[in-house]
Design a protein that fits this description.
It is a single chain. The chain has 278 residues and is α+β, with helices and mostly antiparallel strands. 31% of the residues lie in helices and 25% in strands. It is built from 5 helices and 11 strands. Strand 4 and strand 5 form a beta hairpin. The longest helix has 43 residues. About 15% of the residues have low confidence.
């Protein structure tokens, strides 16, 4: 056999091997994945593994400010202190002027509801007095502003809901203009009612009008017709409770306190600072 025939036979042999290999690879490409995944499923996915993981299914949804307070109250009673996280990004257009405008609008609503009684004398806030404005998020998606206004003789702290613009909490502190530590004529603040009926005063508390309670309920849009909410005012103290589902209590108060040095502090709303952990 000459060299030409040998080369031709070798070429045919190599071609046949190549065709066989290509066919084998094609068959494996069709069959192998089926058996591989079947083996993987049997050895891996069908094994049951138990893991101790706490899943929080607390529903954070609401369609009104009343429902929002319901969520906050339930979360607080379920978990205790709620973690408040400060977020640096500002809302759209939320600068000192915008925040002060909203705060004054809400204060005007409280005045119309006779919540800001004449004894408090809370004048219109000014943007130049806004020394601090911080945005916090808690309960997963609830956000509010903590605004602090200061001038030479008074300090105002506001917790303002970012979505509904309602005031959660308002505190005003006034330093005695005399600048001395002389004990004032008002008793040291203690719990207890001093005189009965309208116009009565608390030991340590200035006299306030009793319709603040109804005014706050109207401001927060509460209704006595809601079967899921119980509204209970404590007559012996300037406070009351909003009770959701007959289980979750939300404190609502209105205090005007004068200390022994004549410094006055007024607090109204819900104790949001005590409920949040910063």
């Amino acid at each position: 056999m000459n060299i030409f025939h040998k080369r031709k036979l070798r070429q045919m042999y190599m071609t046949a091997i190549g065709i066989f290999c290509v066919a084998l690879l094609f068959v494996l490409a069709l069959i192998f994945p089926k058996y591989y995944y079947q083996h993987y499923d049997n050895d891996m996915l069908n094994r049951v593994t138990y893991t101790d993981i706490h899943v929080d299914t607390f529903e954070v949804s609401y369609d009104s400010f009343v429902e929002k307070l319901h969520v906050i109250t339930k979360m607080f009673h379920t978990k205790g202190e709620m973690q408040a996280v400060r977020v640096s990004e500002l809302g759209a257009g939320m600068n000192k002027a915008s925040l002060t405008k909203i705060a004054n609008q809400e204060l005007s609503k409280l005045r119309k509801q006779n919540v800001l009684v004449s004894e408090v004398k809370l004048k219109r806030l000014k943007k130049k007095e806004l020394v601090s404005y911080e945005r916090y998020v808690f309960c997963g998606s609830v956000s509010c502003w903590r605004l602090v206004y200061e001038n030479d003789n008074r300090r105002v702290i506001l917790y303002l809901d970012e979505e509904y613009h309602k005031i959660y909490y308002l505190e005003k502190s006034v330093v005695n203009s005399s600048g001395n530590n002389t004990v004032s004529s008002v008793d040291v603040p203690v719990a207890g009612y001093d005189a009965g009926g309208y116009g009565g005063s608390y030991k340590g508390y200035e006299p306030l009008y009793y319709n603040w309670w109804e005014g706050m309920l109207r401001y927060y849009n509460f209704s006595y017709q809601d079967d899921n909410i119980c509204l209970s005012k404590v007559e012996s103290e300037m406070q009351g409770y909003i009770i959701f589902e007959n289980s979750y209590e939300l404190l609502l108060y209105n205090y005007l306190i004068t200390d022994v040095y004549g410094n006055r502090t007024w607090r109204v709303g819900i104790p949001i600072e005590e409920m949040l952990q910063f």
